Amino acid sequence: MKLGLRNKILLFTTTLVVSIALSLFSITYYYDQVSTKETSHTRLENLLRRTMLSVENSIFMLDLRELRTVVSDNLQHGSVDIILVLDEKGRVLTDGSRENKLRNKVPVDIPVIEPLLTKKENIKLEGSDYFWIAGPILLPNKENLGFLVFGVDINKFNSVLDNSLRNQLFVLIPALILSVFVAFIFSSRLTRPLKELASVAEEIGDGDFTKRSSHSSKDEIGELSKSINMMADNLSRITVSRDELRVVAERESMLKAQAETANLAKSNFLATMSHEIRTPLNGVLGMAQLLKGSQLDKDQQNKINTILSSGESLLDIINNVLDMSKIESGNFELEVTTFDLPEMVSSLVAPFEVMAIEKGLTIKVQMEMGEVALLKGDKTRLHQVLLNLISNAFKFTDKGDVILTVSHLDPQSSDAFENAACSVQIIVEDTGKGITADRLATIFDPFVQEDTSITRKFGGSGLGLAIVKKIIELMAGSISVTSQEGVGTQFKVLVPFDYPSKDEAKAGRIKNKSILVVHDDNLQILLAEDNQVNAVIAKAFLNKFGHEVEHVVNGSLAVDAVSMRKFDLVLMDVHMPEMDGIEATRNIRKLYSLEDLPIIGLTAEAFTDRHLEFKKSGMNDVLTKPFTEQQLASVLKEYGQTSQNSDLEGVGLSFGENPSQEAAEAEVISGKDKEEGDISPISLYPIGDQSQLDRLSNQLDTSLVHGLLSEAPESILALQIQLHKALKSGDSGEIFAAAHSIRGISSSMFATRLAIEAQVIESKANDLMAVRSLILGFDQTIGQTINWWEEKVAS
Amino acid sequence: MNKLQALSVIRLVIVLIIPLLLGRAIDAKAETISIGTISSDPVGEIKLFTPFANYLAQELSADGIDEVKIVIASDVRQMVKMLKHHEVDLFIDSSITASIINQLSGSQFMLRRWKKGRGKYRSVIFVTEDSGIKRLDDLKDKVIAFEEPFSTSGYVLPALVILQSGNELYKLQSLRSEPEADKVSYVMAYDNETQMVWLERGRVAAAAMAESDFLEYSNNVLVPLKSLYTTPYVPYHVVVRRPGLEERLVQRIKDVLLVAHEGKQGVEVMMSFEKTTKFDEIPDDLLSEIKKLEQYLGDVTVN
After folding, report:
1. What is the pTM of this model?
2. Chain B contact for A98, CB < 8 A?
3. Cross-chain Cβ contact B201/A61 below 8 Å
4. Residue in B172, B176, B194, B218 to test binding to A, most A beta-carbons within 10 Å
5. Which of A737, B38, B85, B114 is 20 to 30 A from B69 (CA-CA)?
6. ipTM score assigned to the predicted complex
7. b vs e for B56-93, b when ≥16 Cβ sit within 10 Å of the residue's Cβ?
8. pLDDT of residue A419
9. How far is the C-alpha of A362 from the C-alpha of A680, rounded, in Å?
10. Is A166 exposed, middle or buried (0-12, 13-18, 19+ CB in 10 A)?
11. Greatest CA separation found in chain A?
């Protein structure tokens, strides 16, 4: 049961009073009992002695009347219940009554008689009903005249105690009632104002802010009253009622729902738009790429280059928007693959070397990974992050350095992740203009750039760093930034990774290598693609690879074609009229198993879960459009049963990639031939990558490699002449074409420095002055490269 | 102040104050009659007698009696005097005491009163079986314990029979006094139980008391006792009229008292008057026994 304050006070007070009273009563009762008994005994002893004195003469004279009178008087006094006067032999002389029924008898039933007659001395004895006290009546000469016996009802002692108890109760009960009454009054006086205050508070709580407590005592309750009134004053100042608040809350809830719906619609729209844009853009870029490889005059080459450059930028923006929408909708998923981090960094940085030269900057790479090379993680997304950070560094740095430091943290380090096998710290710092403090706080927010003028000056969607942060957070890592205006900016990334198992490491090494696509034996390939542009591009690539292609425009026709004849591989667009790729795949799988007929899905959808869905329908793998020539070759290599030379490792040709992809495939930098962690001016790059050359030599026939190396100088020298002619005539297109070709050959033949310098010239094809300043060193590098090749052939 | 002095003072107070309290007792008039008795507890006696007196007055109101007064005398002598002076019209007491009063004042027996339901009684003189006393004469040179001087059964009646037997009585001052030679010495025990204790423990040779008391004590004795002599029956209590009281009034009083036990009111009043069950004429045999003793009454010292 719940007790109120008043009842608690009452209960407490009553309990306290009763406890004290009972304690006092018990103590008093005990002492009363003891003292009453002692007193009674003493009193009886005295009475016995006095009575003996008063009866000794009568007993001597045998004056029964006098004896009876004395005894009767004593009995009438009431303090003794039985008085017997016995003769010297213990026979009753009188008991104080005229009847004297015990006359002349020895009252043996009385317990005190026997010891009394035996011992002839004063005796006290407590029987079951009476307390007995008796003694002999002696003359001075010890002659025994008789005995006097007193018997006192035991209850008489108790009655004394009962009286004591009654008296105490007589005081105790009124005291208890009084104390309870006083406690009641006190608690009422205490709780009444509290109840009033509670009532006032309740009314205020119900919205009546005009209600005030009138209690004004100078005690705690008075203080409480003041506080409640003050609270009511403050509340009354709030003009928004609960209803209004509810309306506002409902409106906000509705707006929130609308905003969420709108945001979802936005995300869907962006995803759809991205998808819809990527598909035609794939066509544009593919066609441009093919066009670029055709016979074009210089002007046409320039325009094609511009188309490609603009298209790639557009694709980059679309990719960012798509990434952001995926992140916001929760569909952004990481892939876990095994990759070589130093290698990835090397390939990432390579193109920036060229950019650094162009801008007059220095790029430095500090590799502090020790023996660690292979890691498990999302290589592509890490690449994206670092690319973004380095791009930004270059974008906002006009002079000085861009420094990339990649280190493997000691597990004991404060920054190291607790449960991670390997904690990697990546720092990208520059000596650029820096970021203002107020902008620094929002630097990772979507659509925020350090300055609105940046968009105009440097371009970009404003999503880069937001995506970077999201990706790192998805990787369970962190990113922070420090900056000082005019001094520079430093981004610090911490990411946890796992180490691959032995098998994963082996597989990773193979997969991470780019593929040198050569014309292998022709495959019978069925291409199901409703988009004619994409179909032309794919057919061009496939034809380029030397395969035979049958093209159908929907899934139904694809199924018919497969049922008509045997193909080595099917490239199946997912979205097609009449019958889409998924249904077509399901139907084909009724005829052929995964091993008998590989089906590769083609889609612009980048979501991993969708890819899984496609694979569930029976596709062996999925290529995301726009795919590169190399990606296509890779797939053909993996699934094409008759593919023979596709396992060659080496430098691949690129098609339609952004600079990073290109760099990834170019692999122009080998950390083994340079001082670890320090890549700077191009001149420091090795002429040739001995390790790559050795690896290729190990995998292929050495004579074949020697043959390639022997043919390379001639081709390079021809292109060198072509370049000089173009420079002389100021034909940027031709300069680009020659440089591009030189880069391709040198990359394929492991001529690292020449490939980089060719890329620099390629990128500056439109700037004749820059090319002229570079051409002398370029010629020297060509010479050194040819010497290196010849040395290799000779060795 | 010793006991005797105290008794004298009480007597004086009773003689002087009671008549004042009761108004016209001394100077009685025709319409008032007085009832008297001898007692050392006048207030108690007055309380005891009042309902009876009122009843009598009520019954005699038709005869011109409008009041019955109660007069308590402290001793025989005073009662004799008041009877002689017509200050007391009716005297109610034991038959032996009444007999003495009659001799001294000229009053006469009128009716027997059945006090406590008893119409007659007698006394027993008893000794221990091993005393060797067989006759009253054997009490010579010995001591007998009487009850008290006022007691008819415990003193007067046994003393009279001892005297009647030709023996002479001698009063001892205390138990420790030596008995008189050739006489029957007696000592007042003032208590039946003391008489018994004295006899049982050999302090006296004999004792005397009402037969009913003796029988009661005989149930629980220390040594075997035996009856030496049993007196003749005498009336227990009697009503005596003063000399010269009008015969017509005497008869009216007798008429009232003889039938009092027949009426409800009369029974109630008499029961409150020491459980009196009735009044009747004194039987002749009892009256003759009293007559036989009258000649010795003068030798018995009564207070």
Report:
1. 0.43
2. yes
3. no
4. B194
5. B114
6. 0.76
7. bbebbeebebebbbbbbbbbbbbbbbbbbeebbbbbbb
8. 83
9. 6
10. exposed
11. 179
